[in-house]
Amino acid sequence: MQSLLRWGIENSTPAPQTQTHPQPHPQPLDPSIIDIILGKSDAERMKDALSIALSADKADIDERVNALDDLEMLIEQIDNANNLEKLNMWEPLHSLLTPTPDSERIRTHAIWVVGTAVQNNPAAQDAYLTLNPIPLLTSFLAPPATSKETRSKSIYALSGLLKHNAPALKQLDVQIVNEEGIKDGWDRLRQALQDPEITIRRKTVFLFNNLLTPNEALTPSLSSQSQNLHTPDSLSPSSEPHPQDPIHPNSHSAYLSHPNRASTSGPTLEAMQTHGIVRVLVDSLTGDGEEEEEDVDLDFEEKGVTLLRTYLQLNGPLSQSQKDRITQWIVRSAAAASTSTAGGESDSGDFALSSSPGFENLAERWGMNVTELQELVKMVRVDV
């Protein structure tokens, strides 16, 4: 502030009667003073943060992590996220994901930045996908090679890249050869569904359901004149159809240019069958029949049932043994729900499934109404 005051005094215009010397030429204002007054632009702050994060020889781990935290907060704004490409920041940011000694925290926070930048942002997704990042991100899903935090943030980043992005699913087919053999991204996601950490399993099953749920193709907006409105022009034999509205560049223009971009259901349905994902899902839900009720993670169970229901609604096949296991599991679960309500024991062999209080309790536990649960039961061919 002293510098600003001194500059103001030196460059002020004295009153006419006191002018005895020629007016000196105004001195340019120091840019650092402007930064103090107005603050740096977000673009400058982003570049500064990434520069610190990349400075392994000048900054310690905590400083670099804090810089990535600052960058993550900045790119929460979609315009700043899109500026990563304009500022040529994607490639150096991606370089922080490469495994190096003592880099686990840096890598985890860099993945977090990536996940935030691409979340619901097709423009950022396309910019980052040019670096072919999905094989690397899925390689972080294998414990114990990576920490729980890294695996969790990897699922977060993969969710942002894959949801509503059919072209990105192609990178899941890229095979990786390592000490575990030949695996691709779908295999890694199947592994994540078996992760020892329940939080990872919850996020993975939720991601699968997002990818499997059909999405209506986004179409360009209609002309302001509806085709159903019969005007003199529309009734004229010589009238020409209205041209498609122009597509202006923006973060979501990819959905207008490529309406099928959001259609991830088909490839996911096929992958669930060919990569054993359905088998793992059924095993995860039904268990071995010996789990105690208090050992069941209700959040994972609800998400898993939702995924199973979506799969069956799309006519996904199940083997007879899988149908039998699901049948027995639903009967056991409904019986347990009835027991917890009635305070007594029920014989699951004579259990009147769809008419029992346990059936209603089970439907509520799985986020359904009774009719929806009955439909699920019918899809696995349980006699209700």
From TrEMBL:
Domain Nucleotide exchange factor Fes1: 1-84
TM spans (from-to): none
Top-level lineage group: Eukaryota
Keywords: Repeat
GO molecular function: adenyl-nucleotide exchange factor activity
InterPro entries documented for this protein: ARM-like, ARM-type_fold, Hsp70_NEF-Inhibitors, Nucleotide_exch_fac_Fes1
Family assignment from sequence similarity: Belongs to the FES1 family.
Name listed for the protein in its UniProt record: Nucleotide exchange factor Fes1-domain-containing protein
